[in-house]
Amino acid sequence: MKRFLSLSLAALLILGLAAFTTIHGQSAKPSAKDAAAAKEVEALERQRFEAQVKKDYAFLEKVFADDLVYTHSNGKQNGKPDYIQSIRDGKSQYDKIDVEALNVRAYNDGKAAVVNGTITITLPNKPDGTPNIAHLKYVVVQIKDPKKGWQVVLWQSQKQPDAKS
């Protein structure tokens, strides 16, 4: 509960900063620090997806915050240890993750970022041998820890219908 409350407060703070900027008519153009942070976070997002496919546990341990809340598209939630263990155990398997769209907005002089996008995940084939593909929209909140760097504190995804549906 404490973890959920702190993540909720972090998300509200980020949204509040965005609203404050809009309400007070400040420039919609990001600061130089925010623009640089957005580029850094975008690169890290792509590296994280690659690490999930390659099972690079050292990288995942570094980029997921200890208080991570990871909500899968089926509604199941994991914390950092449980999610990483699910990859180790083969419960979360990714053959390929293709980034279809990626949008990063950084706030607070490059100390927080909200990411949203769409991805296509190729999973191991279904038992009948047919391809198993998931199309997801997702949102990520990342916070820049002064000692640990950028860390994912929140992941939320939603399954999208197949393109042919």
What does this structure look like?
The chain has 165 residues and is α+β, with helices and mostly antiparallel strands. The protein has a single domain (2-160), classed as Nuclear Transport Factor 2, Chain: A (Roll). 37% of the residues lie in helices and 36% in strands. It has four helices and six strands; from the N terminus they run H-H-H-E-E-H-E-E-E-E. The protein has helices at 2-23, 32-54, 57-63, 80-88; strands at residues 64-71, 77-78, 96-107, 112-123, 132-145, 149-160. A six-stranded mixed sheet has the order 2-1-6-5-4-3, with helices on both faces. Helix 2 (32-54) runs antiparallel to helix 3 (57-63). Residues 19-26 have low confidence and may be disordered.
Write the layout of secondary structure elements.
Elements: H1 2-23, H2 32-54, H3 57-63, E1 64-71, E2 77-78, H4 80-88, E3 96-107, E4 112-123, E5 132-145, E6 149-160
Parallel strand pairs: 1-6
Antiparallel strand pairs: 1-2, 3-4, 4-5, 5-6
Helix pairs in contact: 2-3
